[in-house]
Write a structure and sequence with these properties.
The protein is built from 1 helix and 2 strands, in the order αββ. By secondary structure, the protein is mainly alpha-helical. The protein has one domain. The protein has a two-stranded antiparallel ribbon. A hairpin with a 2-residue loop joins β1 and β2. It is rod-shaped and about 110 Å long. It starts with a helix and ends in a 6-residue tail after the last strand.
Amino acid sequence: MTMTLGANIGATHSSAWRGLAAVVGGVATAIAVSVAAIVAVVFAATLVVVGFMATALLGLAAFALRGRRHARAKASSDPNLIEARNVGGHSWVAYGWNERR
């Protein structure tokens, strides 16, 4: 009879730990799921911000290229001004220096 009594006490003690373990496991799972949800929201927000920045960068590049295509040099009103072009490194070629207007 002593054996039966000891077996019942051990089963009751073990079942109490199971309930506590189930509660702790549920709380840990809830915390892990909420942390994962927060990380997912932060990651999604980061992707949205990167998308906006990429769109802004592409827009600025489009404006810069458009400005380059439509830019024209103004004709100079100074008759003493000559034109010079860089032909590489420190070498320049000047045009119009020998022409008198």
